[in-house]
Hints:
The complex is a heterodimer. Chain A is α+β, with helices and mostly antiparallel strands. Chain A contains twelve helices and twelve strands. Chain A has helices at residues 12-19, 33-38, 75-79, 82-87, 89-96, 101-106, 109-113, 120-123, 166-171, 275-281, 288-298, 310-328; strands at residues 5-7, 24-27, 46-49, 59-61, 67-70, 175-180, 183-188, 211-217, 228-233, 244-253, 256-265, 272-273. The radius of gyration of chain A is 20 Å and the shape is globular. In chain B, strands 2-1-5-3-4 form a five-stranded mixed β-sheet, covered by helices on one side. In chain B, strand 3 (51-54) and strand 4 form a beta hairpin. In chain B, helix 2 crosses helix 5. The longest helix of chain B is centred in the last third of the chain and has 23 residues, at 142-164. The relative contact order of chain B is 0.15. The mean pLDDT of chain B is 96. The chains are: A alpha+beta, B alpha+beta. The interface between A and B is large, with 39 and 37 residues.
Amino acid sequence: MKMFDYVKPATLAEAVAAAAQPGAAYLAAGTNLLDLMKGGISRPDCLVDVSHLPGLDRIEHLPDGSVRIGALVSNAGLAHDTEFANSYPAVAEALLSGASAQLRNAATVGGNLLQRTRCAYFYDSASRCNKRDPGSGCDARLGENRLHAVIGWSENCIATHPSDFCVPLVALDAVVEIEGRGGRRELPLEELHRLPEGTPERDTVLEPGDLIVAVRLPPAARGFAAHARYLKIRERTSYAFAVVSAAAALQVENGKITDARLALGGVAAKPWRARAAEQVLKGAAPEAGRFREAAEAAVVDAKPSGDNAFKIELARRVIARALTLAAAGTPARMPALPASPFASSSGALHA
Amino acid sequence: MIHSISLTVNGMRREIELNDPRVTLLDLLRERLHLTGTKKGCDRGQCGACTILVDGKRINSCLALAVSHDGAEIVTIEGIARGEELHPLQAAFVACDGFQCGFCTPGQIMSAIGLMSEGQAGDDPERIREGMSGNLCRCGAYAGIVEAVLEAQASQTEVKQGRSA
Lengths: 351, 165
């Protein structure tokens, strides 16, 4: 690991000033950053430790019905907050389907949003990668790419964004609060991450010094609590990134879908909101034929970036199944295997 | 530059002068405090062999910078027995053959202590398997590990019921 300077600012303003310097990076838990630094993928000159900054570790349920999640709340702390999990069950399910219990205890909300892709070519410093080394090329494009993007990719980069948490958040219109050199601003989460186009080295629209301080869910997000699920297909039952995942949230009244939210994970360089599919669902009865139509609408612009055409069909099926699960209703208790397609009952055998 | 931190490790306060900010909690424990029970497996957060408790919560010590944990309370595998009396999870791992080579065992036991205090799994084997998925065992002792956690859970429940009776 390259040597770095370590600074521990006492205030947000000091943190922003320090991190705006060239070569500086924020450190929260470091669960992704340290891994990247050990591999020589990230080589910061200075780490600005924000893990002790006051006031960023609270979950605030606000009087208007929204919730404000401090950027330093841990993934586990959020998922196991009873009021949060009851109000936003698909978000809790997504969190608990990600990483391991140890990582969820450490990893923060802000860090989850800003984690980097797990593309193997990005991690392998002997490979060409435009995200790691701009202009060097993309060895994934003609390499082992069955898990890569099928939506929004470019010839320069076919990596996906790995977060589960972001998928239901983007479906529920989450807003990101950012402290930067120009003060505080906010941004819809949907606009935080970038598609690769010609500059895949930029994962997000954040500028030097920008610090995510909170994520907010608007009052309407609570309205989906009765019919909200996250479904995640993995190559093993637990502790694996999504091949394809979907967050589905419905409001159902008198046998009709009055509002619908759908987003996909594992398919693009950002959490992918499927608005066209939502339009197909609104006003319809919650039934299988309409769910398949919605799934079709969600992947209409998808195309394989390599040996991964199967992910498009898989996405259709994951969407239809997530919508079916959401329509059936949020389970009273978190499933034993969160977001898993495997039926779970006490004593069931899984390898 | 020297970074001074203080940690409580297995109940003992330690004042530490770090001359290198790159030191992880794992390397600090093993190389500087000579607590080698915590194991370095992958060193990248994938295997769980380095699991310790920090402020009561299980984490991967390989992905935590020591310099960032000033004031933390740390418990490692060396700190859980009471003298010669094994921690109930240690005893259960022995009784249930929860290991073969033993390399992953300190991490498995620290992770299981974390799992039990989180209180999410109870006596459901599937929830235990899911909650322990961050600890790999290349000998494949998983069946014994789940059994050991179930046994420790059952004896904890008995103790609690005994106290309340």
